[in-house]
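Sequence, please.
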């Protein structure tokens, strides 16, 4: 399915962030971890500012890097315009759980296990990315914010990916070579 227009197609961060969050937060295996001991949510006025409701959860932030290749890999769209198609990106995942060490580490391990399949699940035409695909995904480190007094544990997992626009997604198609 081609994108509606080039401006929409080029919103890489929007689509990648939504895909990683949807894929991980909807994962049934991952959702079994940590849900039993999460404390009740305080619904009083202003409490949502201090304690966000959805735990455990994954939040995603993507930074697009340089194009792949030197010179960059490109294709020609149906209008004969040269278009870059292949980029490096950094994916930052924030893993947020209740302040329980066992639950948190189970959740972190679960996300790492699932992320090991990212370049398989998010490659080609897939249910999470309407117009993009991930060809490579590899771990690039982690940091932890384990503060029981805050009521939340957060681990940030960093991944490097290479992604592209699916060949069938270009508005108007591609020129045949």
């Amino acid at each position: 399915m081609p994108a509606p227009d080039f401006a929409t197609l080029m919103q890489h961060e929007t689509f990648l962030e939504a895909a990683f969050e949807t894929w991980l937060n909807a994962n049934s295996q991952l959702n079994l971890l940590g849900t039993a001991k999460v404390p009740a949510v305080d619904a009083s006025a202003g409490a949502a500012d201090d304690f966000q409701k959805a735990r455990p959860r994954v939040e995603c932030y993507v930074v697009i890097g340089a194009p792949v290749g030197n010179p960059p890999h490109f294709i020609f769209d149906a209008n004969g315009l040269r278009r870059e198609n292949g980029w490096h990106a950094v994916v930052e995942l924030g893993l947020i759980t209740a302040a329980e060490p066992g639950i948190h580490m189970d959740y972190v391990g679960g996300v790492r296990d699932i992320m090991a399949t990212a370049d398989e699940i998010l490659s080609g035409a897939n249910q999470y990315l309407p117009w993009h695909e991930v060809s490579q995904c590899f771990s690039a480190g982690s940091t932890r914010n384990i503060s029981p007094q805050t009521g939340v544990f957060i681990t940030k997992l960093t991944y490097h990916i290479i992604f592209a626009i699916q060949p069938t997604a270009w508005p108007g198609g591609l020129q045949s070579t």
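Residues 6-38+52-169 form a domain with the STM4215-like fold (CATH 3.30.2000).
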